[in-house]
Amino acid sequence: MSAAREYGLDEDYEWPRPPVGGWTADDLDRLPNLPPHTELIDGSLVFVSPQTRFHLRTVRLLEYALLSQVPDAYDVDREFSVKLDRRNRPVPDVLVYRADADTGPQQTWHHSDAVVLAIEVVSEDSVERDREVKPRKYATAGIPHYWRVEESEGLPVVYAYELDRSTGTYSITGIHHERLKTAVPFPIEIDLTAINRRPPVAPPAQETTSAE
Questions:
Q1: Which residue, 8, 41, 47, 211, is the most exposed by fewest CB within 10 angstroms?
Q2: β-sheet bridge partners, residue 122
Q3: Helix (H, G, I), strand (E, B), or coil: what is residue 25?
Q4: What's phi and psi for 197, nearest 5 deg?
């Protein structure tokens, strides 16, 4: 059985062949049949492995917590790509960006200048990228804050970093177990033990009818 057939593709499917010099960030919007959340790192395509439950629920916890506390000047997206430069377009698991960078429903990426916080939840296949490659590239692109999230006994541990503008590298500002509380990039407090709780959802508004 061919690799194409294993992935549910036609036998005649041809895998993308990179041009000389590798792919560019703009190519991601033109290449057909790419798996969801395909990243571009140093001109090479990186495919994301299936999520574990820990990964999925950690992303959900952080997304809802940030959405509930983010100031109006910012917004939150999950698994949305960021163009760092011509050869790098990663997909942070969660990101906070300036709300005025929203260009509408057809937007497919954010420029790194608009991002204030990038978050990566480490998976088995992303350890080196999330610990070494991505933080270096995010810092070079000028993203002010980076969180790396790892699993410990079923709970997320958040390693928080802040960009040192004088060196262009990240400095760690805290390692957060059970509860994250920080003042940057805005006041945030997250109960990390709530990973398996359902996020609160407001009930639908009741329709009111005027008296006859």
A1: 211
A2: none
A3: helix
A4: -85, 145
